[in-house]
Amino acid sequence: SSSKVKKKMGGSRLWMKFDKFGESELFEWDKSSIIKRVGIPARDLRILGPVFSQSSNILARERAMVVNLEFIKAIVTAEEVLLLEPLRQEVLPFVDQLRQQLPHKNQAMNKSELVNDRDNKVRSTEAQWARTPEAVEGEQQELPFEFQVLEIALEVVCSYLDSNVAELEKHAYPVLDELARNVSTKNLERVRSLKSNLTRLLARVQKVRDEIEHLLDDNEDMAHLYLTRKLIQYQQSEALMNSAASHSLVPSQHALHRNSSHRSGSIMTSNYWDDDVEDLEMLLEAYFMQLDGTRNKILSVREYIDDTEDYVNIQLDNQRNELIQLQLNLTIASFAIALDTLIAGFFGMNIPCSLYNINGIFGYVIGGGTAFSFLIFLLILGYARWKKLLGS
Amino acid sequence: SSSKVKKKMGGSRLWMKFDKFGESELFEWDKSSIIKRVGIPARDLRILGPVFSQSSNILARERAMVVNLEFIKAIVTAEEVLLLEPLRQEVLPFVDQLRQQLPHKNQAMNKSELVNDRDNKVRSTEAQWARTPEAVEGEQQELPFEFQVLEIALEVVCSYLDSNVAELEKHAYPVLDELARNVSTKNLERVRSLKSNLTRLLARVQKVRDEIEHLLDDNEDMAHLYLTRKLIQYQQSEALMNSAASHSLVPSQHALHRNSSHRSGSIMTSNYWDDDVEDLEMLLEAYFMQLDGTRNKILSVREYIDDTEDYVNIQLDNQRNELIQLQLNLTIASFAIALDTLIAGFFGMNIPCSLYNINGIFGYVIGGGTAFSFLIFLLILGYARWKKLLGS
Amino acid sequence: SSSKVKKKMGGSRLWMKFDKFGESELFEWDKSSIIKRVGIPARDLRILGPVFSQSSNILARERAMVVNLEFIKAIVTAEEVLLLEPLRQEVLPFVDQLRQQLPHKNQAMNKSELVNDRDNKVRSTEAQWARTPEAVEGEQQELPFEFQVLEIALEVVCSYLDSNVAELEKHAYPVLDELARNVSTKNLERVRSLKSNLTRLLARVQKVRDEIEHLLDDNEDMAHLYLTRKLIQYQQSEALMNSAASHSLVPSQHALHRNSSHRSGSIMTSNYWDDDVEDLEMLLEAYFMQLDGTRNKILSVREYIDDTEDYVNIQLDNQRNELIQLQLNLTIASFAIALDTLIAGFFGMNIPCSLYNINGIFGYVIGGGTAFSFLIFLLILGYARWKKLLGS
Amino acid sequence: SSSKVKKKMGGSRLWMKFDKFGESELFEWDKSSIIKRVGIPARDLRILGPVFSQSSNILARERAMVVNLEFIKAIVTAEEVLLLEPLRQEVLPFVDQLRQQLPHKNQAMNKSELVNDRDNKVRSTEAQWARTPEAVEGEQQELPFEFQVLEIALEVVCSYLDSNVAELEKHAYPVLDELARNVSTKNLERVRSLKSNLTRLLARVQKVRDEIEHLLDDNEDMAHLYLTRKLIQYQQSEALMNSAASHSLVPSQHALHRNSSHRSGSIMTSNYWDDDVEDLEMLLEAYFMQLDGTRNKILSVREYIDDTEDYVNIQLDNQRNELIQLQLNLTIASFAIALDTLIAGFFGMNIPCSLYNINGIFGYVIGGGTAFSFLIFLLILGYARWKKLLGS
Amino acid sequence: SSSKVKKKMGGSRLWMKFDKFGESELFEWDKSSIIKRVGIPARDLRILGPVFSQSSNILARERAMVVNLEFIKAIVTAEEVLLLEPLRQEVLPFVDQLRQQLPHKNQAMNKSELVNDRDNKVRSTEAQWARTPEAVEGEQQELPFEFQVLEIALEVVCSYLDSNVAELEKHAYPVLDELARNVSTKNLERVRSLKSNLTRLLARVQKVRDEIEHLLDDNEDMAHLYLTRKLIQYQQSEALMNSAASHSLVPSQHALHRNSSHRSGSIMTSNYWDDDVEDLEMLLEAYFMQLDGTRNKILSVREYIDDTEDYVNIQLDNQRNELIQLQLNLTIASFAIALDTLIAGFFGMNIPCSLYNINGIFGYVIGGGTAFSFLIFLLILGYARWKKLLGS
Q: Would you call A59 and E285 a contact, using CB atoms and an 8 Å cutoff?
């Protein structure tokens, strides 16, 4: 089996590991090492692969959460972050933020406290109503490790996308107004490239936004992301079982144990559960609104592009009609002149004509022909105006 | 930690504080002061920032509700409103309404009554069926402080949006009819700016409407907005706990307390809960319908714009075809005249021709050539009509 | 307070009151009288105002239902209908139907029977299976007063909309076929006004349909509309409470009472509830299907308009190409003739040429020039055909 | 009351009655007879009327199901089918199928067995796992009468729609390819009529599909369609009540009875219920997929039409540009010739010129003029090519 | 009955059977043999028929799952796969994968172990937290047979679709850029065929994606797919019943048994159920994301096509206007020359004129006429530029 697995995995890639205190290390791991380390099936590792480079997904698994937000590709467990491609240009701010904020937030917190988290919370809830600033700050520091990482990741991605959109906006309006003023191949090319940039950016923002909305819609999925809680619950139930095992329980209790460990004690603590999903819900809600605002900005740029294109289309059509109207005027005039030329041509024939011998009529002939042509010109012009084909 | 917080917060901004009795005070607060005062995470304060200036959101938090409705940016707690940028032009009517209506509604109500709210309600329900006008008025005065503020905010925003839409409508129809009559660059420019105004206004109305619809869809979110009720429940449960604590309860009761305070006693009073969400539901429903009507008006203007553009497009196309048809008529006639001119040109050549010596045929030659040309003209014209290219 | 209320309400309006037996009276009421009479907040009365003239809403309130279906603006309680603007042209059929059908349906029913409604129903259910016609008729007469009124209103509105759609359809197809045959400004204008009529009518039908669908989707909302049932339940619980009060119950029972009266005894009778929503569901379902059919008819007219416009667009484009093709043919021919004219023009120059002295070549020169021109004509024509620019 | 009913009903219509064994009879019934026979309100009978001729609906009522699938308009009870307009061309296959399949399926089943249906089912479930072919066949024969009829109706309607779509497809592709090759009024007319056929057919398929999807989405609605089961449960509860009545129970038990008969014993047998909805779910699922496939075929034809129209539009535009380019070439050439003609015209003037007396320059003058004109031609052509207006 | 069945079934088709250990056999079966073998109604077999060749469906039935994923048409039971048309080109990789992976995964597992699956799982869950690689591998091998097959099928189909999309992408961008550079009938034809390929491919990817999404949305449907579990539960309940039967239970217990076997013990083991749906959910989620990514790629190609077409449309319109502008320039120039020609023509008339006798004025006449014409040319050109019809 191992040979087959190796063949599939290909070469190893560069990962950076962070723990709670912001300590980082670089590793070269292949797929199977990662799978062993974080306990997820190989199938789920694919979403960190190159196929999903433009996509965004957050997967909740038993002991880890697989985060693929734009350029941030990481696996977060209750105790550490494994970050893929940590040296890419866009990922650096994320690495910086992790180094800065993690030690700060977790310096006073250690494993023993985590188990006492429950009592802790009761106290902080009380304090919360007392309106002391420390309590509020305290609440924010209370977020478990995995959500600290998630918030930093969302922060970095949101501001990255926001700055991209701002740049797009700054660029878009002048280009579009230029097109509205003057339709030229160069301007059209610029608008076209603007549109494909916009479409690509919109798809990316939308993907992150939809992923967060999807999480917000499903309380169960959010509960799955509480890795620290799940770990503590597992440890507690294991401790319980060990003590129970020493008192020789019947196998049917095994099933009970399994259930409570796996579903994290669904019956007993169900109220407790919903409760704490609220922390994550508030976290995600804030970033959802930010991304929704970003998306609305892009959509309004797209509306502006569409409106400009409609305008340009009608404008071009209208200009064409005006060109043709002028041309029509000239065509009518040319027709009259051709008529006059024909008359002159007749009298230029060398076939004998009695008029050729009468002096002093040159002016009258020219005058007569020209007057006749001018009359025809006026008649046709009047007809065209009567038909509303030529305006004033 | 405090130095880092300060750096983030930047300068302080102007806030106006209202209490229940409409008393207002102006303050210069920075972000951290606000956070301490109302107990919300810094993250949630962002939606009052400049990025969300065109957006609308209502966030329910533990002790406060963050209201961002168009230009109204405020934090409402059970006891006071903190209003951001209270001196902006559009915000003034809101300030006026708060000053006028709050003292009026709350003058007979004081804190001791709020705790008795429950009994109060039973009595008012009875009274309600008795059909005395006082009862009805009474019911309306019963709304808790936070919803009084919310209603005033919705009222102000709805009438602001409505007047904007009315203005847009008054402006739009003449502009569009003018375009339908006469396509010109100037009219096109006016329709284009009309369209982008409309799109922006629609986005704003839609945002407020969607936010209210979102709240209406989720009973739990609405329940979170009952700040006064949550405060009373917290006070009651604290009182209970203090008395319990003096009787030395086991820690497991702590958890129970926490649950009931945090989730506002989800099991015991769940029926009671759903019940009172109805007040807010009725409030929001009425404004939702108003905003929906406003939105439908904008949409019908947009439909009219689209129809006009379709009309203009087909009209321009049709006019062009008529122009080309007239041009074609002239082209056919010109062709016939060119033919006749050619014939005349032949006889204008100085190369000897036997006809040059025959007298009296001048008229016949001209007549023959012209007749031939006219015949050609009629043939081509007939062909074009037979092909349905030229109409009658 | 009363002065402020009056200022808001403005003048009084004309209302018509109907009771169960079809007896009607005309009244001049202002807003506050109505609010006192039916016990709804002023906020809800707005949907009967002029802003909502094109909108449709059905609001369920504690003791009344506010019905705004197209032109029918009424407040229905368990015992009477208050109809706004009863003398408008479109409302008259509704008034007629109320006068005709209400006394007929309620003549055998009086208040005492309503309280016995429950037993009544059991009997009718048995009878139902027995397949006697009386039982079926009986079931239909069983509808409470508010639904009798609602059904008459839906009936009147549906047939009004249906006849409007039928008229639109009758008008639309000839106009569109005329446009497809002959694109002219007049026909375009007619289609444009047809489209805006259609859009307006569609919006109205859609609004009524959506409102009914919305009700059908939410069993709770439908249950709120059972005004008669809520009234009886309130009366019963009040009787119960009065007797209980005389036996001095503890306050906690008050809460129970309140709950059961307000939520209509949600636990005990929840099965009973769902059950009777079925009557309303069946009623609304039938009208929903009718409105859905009406809407589909309008949509199919719109599809036809869109298809016709697409057709006209392509047809105009195609005709233009054919016009230009014919023009191109003539341009080629004119070019050849201009060439021939040039040749003739050369020989019309007065500059001495040796050919001028040779007799008998006149025909050859003309023939040569014309043949050369014709050759050029054929070459260009062949080139155009080879390029597929000119068809056969 | 009866006179009013009659007036509403109008004339009687032709119905065909089938019982379980496929025995059919023809009747002339008016609306009121039908209403009495099957126990549905007059309101529901409307969906079989002419207004709904293009629509599809399935209504579940207490004792009957009203089926309006395309041309099949029938009322199905637990014991018989009443088929409207049984002699229409499209309905005949349905009549044939009913005659063929009903006796076959029900010959071994009689009323006494139906009551024993429950035990029966247990046995067949066991048999099912035993993998004997009879068991499988047995399961299929187990469908109650109303679903046998429903399946035959769906079968007939699906194959009818499918054959219509197949015909449309066979017709559509050649017409569209012909249009892409050659845009002509005739081809445009054919595509236009193709499109309106397609739109109509799509609406019909969609309507049937949506109706089935709607049923599949709502387990309660599906449960309502189990007419046979509801009949048996009613009979059982009635028997129970009769025996209970003979033991003089208190009225409160009446309510219980009513509930269990009406809601078919919702609590006790709720598991049993869900279970059997599966039969209908499997039945509808299979036809839903078939209709979904049919719909996808139509949609792909529509996509093909849209793509072809886009292609034709761009193609016509492109062809027009090419036409104008050729015309421009000719215009440039004509301009050059006009210039040359002008030069010749100058020397055709009878005003004395010194060149008129020099022999042998005729050729040079012609050559010079023509060379000059040709140079102008080349200059303008080069300018047009430099501007990218004329291609190679 | 059998004769009718045969007639319906038509000829037999080629099937390949795989068991757990990857052993395959080829069979010629007709429909009725398949129906007997896997116990599904004939109706469900249709989705493997030719009508559904472009569609994708997964049907969960009592003892089998009918899989129609693109080209893979198979029936999977808890113990074997029946694969239709196993020799088609596209199906071969699926056959290969089945042969390779099935024996590998199931070699250590046999029927007796399957019954012990429950205990097994408990152990593996413990192991999971222990972070030993074997545990993780173990978890993956734990998937029941039907999901092993499903995963292989999804794997094969996803990579097939992905490679198709990659090919399409590779082909699309050059074709579209070529069209943007040069609009020609050939390029248009290529884009048109690209579009219909894309539409077809999108429909296929969408169908598979929607089917998986549909499954993911409905936990009950996913639970139905656990064929192995359902089989074990059936066997256990049968064993239980047999022992119960030997103790002569009352018939009412039959019903209980029936329920628990059919609904797989919905009450007792409901927690256990939800739990295991998670395996399938994780499996489907991973492939859903992959298909969603594939779909997004196609959609972005379609966006690019739409943008290119918009660009080409505006570009063609703009080019046409430029063509017409150049033509207008020439028309104005031609008009001036025609005027000049007319003047020359006048003096070419043979009618006596006093100028004919004055020497030395030839140049002045030519100069005067030409100057006049040039002035007219400049006037008209200036007018056109003033009207913004001709640019610089």
A: yes
Q: How far apart are CA A142 and CA A226, in angstroms?
A: 13
CA–CA separation, A317 and A311 (whole Å): 10
pLDDT in tens, chain E (392 residues): 444 444 444 568 889 998 888 888 898 888 888 888 888 877 788 788 776 777 788 888 888 899 998 889 999 998 889 998 888 888 999 999 898 888 776 665 444 444 444 444 444 444 344 333 333 444 444 688 889 899 999 999 999 999 999 999 999 999 999 998 888 888 999 999 999 899 999 999 999 999 999 888 888 888 888 888 888 888 888 888 888 766 654 444 444 444 433 433 333 333 444 456 778 888 898 899 889 889 988 998 999 999 999 999 998 999 899 999 999 999 999 999 999 999 999 998 888 888 888 888 889 999 999 999 999 999 999 999 998 888 75
Mutation target vs E (from D162, D278, D303, D314; most E CBs, 10 A cutoff): D314
Element (H, E) at A295: helix A270-348
Quick one: closest CA in E to D294, which residue? E51
Shortest Cα distance, chain D CAs vs residue E123, angstroms = 31
Distance between CA atoms of E79 and E63, rounded to whole angstroms?
10
Note whether A317 contacts B316, CB cutoff 8 Å. yes
Q: Do A323 and E318 touch (CB under 8 A)?
A: no
> What pTM value is reported for the model?
0.80
CA distance D392 to A290: 53
φ/ψ of residue E311, rounded to 5: -60, -45
The terminus-to-terminus CA distance of chain E in angstroms comes to 87
**Can you read off the two tokens belonging to residue C14?**
């004309």
Strand boundaries in chain D, DSSP class E = 13-19, 24-29, 57-60, 64-69, 72-77, 80-84
CA–CA separation, E203 vs A146, rounded Å?
39
pLDDT tens-place string over residues A53-110: 777 888 888 888 999 988 899 999 988 899 988 888 889 999 998 988 887 766 654 4
ipTM: 0.79
Phi-psi region of A215 (alpha: psi -120 to 50; beta: other; left: phi over 0): alpha
Alpha-carbon span C344 to B83, nearest angstrom? 92
Q: How distant is the Cα of B3 from the closest Cα of chain C, in angstroms?
A: 49
Q: Is B387 in contact with C321 (CB distance < 8 Å)?
A: no
Query: Which residues, including other chains, have CB under 8 Å from residue A38's CB and lie 6 or more apart?
Result: A63, A64, A75, A77, A82
Which residues sit opposite D25 in a β-bridge? D17
Q: What is the arrangement of strands in the sheet containing C64-69, beginning at the earlier edge strand?
A: C24-29, C13-19, C80-84, C72-77, C64-69, C57-60
Find out whether A254 and B13 touch, Cβ atoms under 8 Å: no
Strands D24-29, B64-69: pairing kind: unpaired
Half-sphere exposure of C248 (CA within 13 A, CB side): 0
Determine whether the interchain pair A188/E308 forms a contact, defined as Cβ–Cβ distance below 8 Å: no
C193 Cβ contact partners less than 8 Å away, ≥ 6 residues apart: none
Gap from A143 CA to chain E (nearest CA, Å): 23
CB C41 within 8 A of CB B282: yes
Structure tokens, A97: 């933020």
As a whole number of angstroms, the distance between CA C23 and CA C37 comes to 18
Pick E324's closest partner by Cβ from A251, A255, A323.
Answer: A323
d(CA E289, CA E282): 11
The single-letter code of the amino acid at B170 is K
What does the alpha-carbon distance between residue C245 and residue A195 come to, in Å, rounded to a whole number?
74
Helix (H, G, I), strand (E, B) or coil at C108: coil
Token pair belonging to D258: 């009513």
Question: Please, are residues C154 and C65 in contact by the beta-carbon 8 Å criterion?
Answer: no
Helix (H, G, I), strand (E, B) or coil at E11: coil
Angle made by CA atoms B233, B238, B244, in degrees to the nearest 5 = 130
